[in-house]
Amino acid sequence: MTETQNGAVFEAITVHNFSEKILEQVIHFHVMKLSGGFFLWDSMPLSSLIMGDPSNTASNSLAQRLAKKTKKQVFVSYSLPTTDSNLSLSVENRIKKELELHPEHF
Predict the structure, then answer these.
(1) Of 38, 65, 78, 103, which has the fewest beta carbons less than 10 angstroms from its beta carbon?
(2) Can you list the domains of the chain with their CATH numbers?
(3) pTM value?
């Protein structure tokens, strides 16, 4: 959906949600498609952080990989335990699968 104001074209922000049980934990994903990029939030229920830990580079690393893959600006809020590399890899693979299945939401 697009909107025009004073001759400029703006895309509406769209939202796409999906969930997946990964390694016995339900992970929720929330994608907000923006003009020229997207915001991705993933979390387990009741574990979301409002302000991220600056020493945790998982969000930034994932955002960089997704930006490279999609050629878009990407913002990521990653509120999962980073101590389990299997969980992190499985979550990233699920995001990539969703990108392949529904590229229109990213």
Answers:
(1) 103
(2) 2-105 (3.30.230.90)
(3) 0.78
